[in-house]
Amino acid sequence: MFSAKRAGRQFHGGRITYAVLIVFTAGSLFPLVWTAIAASRNSSRLAQTPPPFWFGGNLFKNLEIAWTDANMGAALLNTTIVAGSIATGTVVFSTLAGFAFAKLRFRFKNLLLVLVIGTMMVPPQLSVVPLYMLIAELSWTDQLQSVILPTLVSAFGVFFMRQYLIEALPTELIEAARVDGANSWRVVWHVVFPAARPAMAVLGMLTFVMAWNDFFWPIIALTQNGSPTVQVALTGLGRGYIPDQSVIMAGALLGTLPLLIAFVVFGKHIVGGIMQGAVKG
Amino acid sequence: MRGSSGRPPTEHSTTPETAVPSPGEEGAAPPRVQVSSAAEERRRARRSRRYRLDVKWSPYAFVMPFFVFFMAFGLFPLLYTGWASLHRVELTAPTDMEWVGLRNFSRLLEDEFFWNALKNTVTIGLISTVPQLLMALGIAHLLNYRLRGSMFFRVAALTPYATSVAAATLVFVLLFGRDYGMINWALGLVGFDNIDWQNGEWTSQLAVSTIVIWRWTGYNALIYLAAMQAIPKDLYESAALDGASRRQQFIHVTIPSLRPTILFTCVVSTIGATQLFGEPLLFNGGAGATGGADHQFQTLGLYLYEQGWVNLHLGRASAIAWAMFLILLVIGAVNWLLARRLSKSA
């Protein structure tokens, strides 16, 4: 009994374990902390050796310059709209499709599911040229729908919701609702959505992070002078739009801070979601 | 409407014991109150028809949004890229397409910048993916111990994942600065001369890889950790009873059980490495899409962008996109063969 308990994986971490993990954590967090330090200095201080290791007094000044001159304020609003719409659309459409694939019977179901999974393999590079032609044709360049619509559904999301609902949604519950006279849409609203809520929250967070940080397509579809997302605006900063390094760091900080705050608040759930998706995916 | 007539579902329920089928209506309501006027009868028939239509068609309605968007923004562009790659198309007039057959592709084969970008993509992919996954495996093993503050370590490991390519690269550009960068300063403390990270071939590729490693190691570690926690405990117990040390348990129990997950992360990382774009674009400072003065860290993704949106040749960009796709398919096939050999030898 005693030996079996010790034999399991529940070894306590030793000193070396903690030491290595602390070094790794420091390496993970250091660039972020240093972004804030650099953003609180001025550019001439950044052009000296040794580099600064502690905060200076220019943080709010630099943030203000980034906010107004580089339009980070507008960019943050744009990114919030884009990431919010994409997360909402992905969650709703993935839950509907995931429910159908998990619990309903229809012709071509397996074929369609294979198609969904197959689309995960297609790299985004393969679609940028026609997408660009399409939005140019529609005069959508620099409009937010040109980045929202192409990303509004996700094959990963469908697959994720399907895997979750197979176990989390008892078929009897659906049947009971049907016996009570509910049609499919009522079943979705009163049975599926409540049962799927935890997975919907996780998928929403993951999608929001991904959409917030998306880079390749936004930089093609949006310009720095139009209505850029944060990532596109940061590209302008990096290209010497404003040559002041500390202002660039202030911009980088502004673009990262909202997600970092979300990580402090929801970190546990995001970690849980990634680990859950990993085992099932 | 709700519950006025308890219809047992026609398809799902196995034995509708209570239902006495009334004529013309399979699986209808039990004849509790027999006042079925003709109107009532008709209403019931209508409801039952509506029910059957609902069960038959709503699954398609549920999956339709995905497929509509996928057709419009996934499948159609995929095929159209193939079509465009057979044409001369300029960004300035995207509707004027001139048929050139396979010329865009044959041109790629003798294009030194294409081969250069391919070589860089492979090199950067290797020096970012291999250390990243090995480190992730080690970190996951440590996180799997019983730890104080384990959730803190996990969340901290994931924060780089929440940092955008743009923000991360801008910071690393400063850290890798030649004259005042912190990395050269630290190396100087142990006696190294300043390294020109951006302009050297190896050094710039190493620096770009560092950004990738920083962003993704924690993410992969959590994926491994999840897989480790799914390994049944009795495997470890019997190994321990056989006298296996922790290290032997890791090598003979953990790693083999993780094989599918390792393969999965290899595939995902390879796909990611093939598409590497933001890091080399922004590591270049102000110089645009060339990937350094000598194209020393220009990747395929960046080369595609340069051809299409700097040099305005959309047809050539499409050909590069399809070339990337073919390379991915080859890598996928190699991965699959390797996986088959591995599982056979096991």
Give the low-confidence spans of chain B: 1-27
Task: Give a count of the beta strands of chain A, DSSP E runs of length 2 or more.
Answer: 0
Overall geometry of chain B comes to extended
Distance between the termini of chain A: 35 Å
Structural class of chain A: mainly alpha
Adjacency order of strands in the biggest sheet of chain B = 1-2
Q: What structural category do the secondary elements of chain B indicate?
A: mainly alpha
How much of the polypeptide of chain B forms β-strand, as a percent range? Answer: under 5%
Measured on Cα atoms, how large is the radius of gyration of chain B?
30 Å
Record field, number of beta strands of chain B? 2
Explain what you see:
The complex is a heterodimer of chains A (281) and B (346). With 281 residues, chain A is mostly helical. Helix content of chain A is 76%, strand content 0%. Chain A contains 14 helices and no strands. In chain A, helix 2 packs antiparallel against helix 14 (245-280), helix 4 (59-69) packs across helix 14 and helix 9 crosses helix 11. In chain A, 47% of the residues are buried. Chain B has 346 residues and is mainly alpha-helical. Chain B is 67% helix and 3% strand. Chain B is built from 13 helices and two strands, in the order αββαααααααααααα. A two-stranded antiparallel ribbon of chain B has the order 1-2. In chain B, strand 1 (87-90) and strand 2 (93-99) form a beta hairpin. In chain B, helix 4 packs across helix 7, helix 10 runs antiparallel to helix 13 and helix 12 (300-310) runs antiparallel to helix 13 (314-345). The longest helix of chain B has 47 residues, at 38-84. Chain B starts with 37 loop residues before the first helix and ends with a helix. Mean pLDDT of chain B is 84; it is low at 1-27. At the A-B interface, helix 1, helix 2, helix 5, helix 6 and helix 7 of A face helix 1, helix 3, helix 4, helix 5 and helix 6 of B.
